[in-house]
Amino acid sequence: MAKYSKAAQDNVESTMKRMKKGTLKSSSGKKVTNPKQAIAIGLSEAREKGAKAPTPPAKRKGATKKR
């Protein structure tokens, strides 16, 4: 079973292309150079559009470290 939907995969692919081209910007307006950050932005945009993508780790139950 796929972790992400085809729409989410397409969105991540397009954000990676934008990153490599140098046009992808973060919310603060700075240019994104880290591939992991580009993937996170692509998944976030896909979630906004309603594509199937898992929730971010910070929002998952038990994702925070116990002290």
What descriptive keywords fit this protein?
67 residues, mainly alpha, 46% helix
Structural notes for this entry:
With 67 residues, this protein is mostly helical. The protein is built from two helices and no strands. Helix 1 packs across helix 2. It is globular, with a radius of gyration of 13 Å. The mean pLDDT is 86.
Describe this structure in a few short sentences.
By secondary structure, this protein is mostly helical. The chain has helices spanning about 5-20, 35-50.
The total beta strand count reads 0
Q: Shape, please? A: globular
Query: Helices and strands, in N-to-C order?
Result: HH
Low-confidence stretches: none
Compile the SSE list and pairings.
Blueprint: H1 6-21, H2 35-49
Helix pairs in contact: 1-2
